[in-house]
Amino acid sequence: MEEKEKTENCYRQIYDGMVRKDGRLLLEVLDDSFVLIHMTGMRQFKEVFIYTIEGGNYHG
Questions:
Q1: What is the pLDDT of residue 43?
Q2: Is residue 58 predicted with pLDDT exceeding 90?
Q3: What is the value of pTM for the model shown?
Q4: CA-to-CA distance for 22 and 31, rounded, in angstroms?
Q5: Nearest-angstrom CA–CA distance, 27 and 18
Q6: Residue 56 pLDDT
Q7: What is the pLDDT of residue 57?
Q8: What is the DSSP code string of 1-60?
Q9: What contacts 46, CB < 8 A, 6 or more positions away?
Q10: Once rounded to an integer, what is the mean pLDDT over residues 7-32?
Q11: Is the dihedral of CA 16, 2, 29, 24 positive or negative?
């Protein structure tokens, strides 16, 4: 599998996990060092990001 395909596959898994609110999938796909940086500059670490997704409070 080429790097582009690997990247696209990973993105699809993350997107699917977000849409389905599947914290278990997100735990598997996202690296432990994952940090989401919002437009406002707010940093959201992996555990908080997943918790927010599972709770339905993410408005990305």
A1: 96
A2: no
A3: 0.82
A4: 16
A5: 11
A6: 83
A7: 77
A8: --HHHHHHHHHHHHHHHHHHT-HHHHHHHS-TT-EEE-TTS-EEEHHHHHHHHHTT----
A9: 27, 30, 31, 32, 33, 34, 35
A10: 96
A11: positive
The closest alpha carbon to 42, from 54, 32, 28, 52, belongs to 52
Residue 2: both structure tokens together: 């080429």
Q: Are 52 and 42 contacting, i.e. CB atoms less than 8 angstroms apart?
A: no
Closest CA to 23 of 8, 58, 39: 58
pLDDT score, position 60: 60
Q: Spell out the long-range contacts of 29-36 with Cβ–Cβ below 8 A and sequence spacing 24 or more.
A: none
Mean per-residue pLDDT, 5-11: 95
Structure tokens, 58: 């993410």
- Rounded alpha-carbon distances, angstroms, from residue 48 to 7, 28, 51, 60: 23, 15, 5, 14
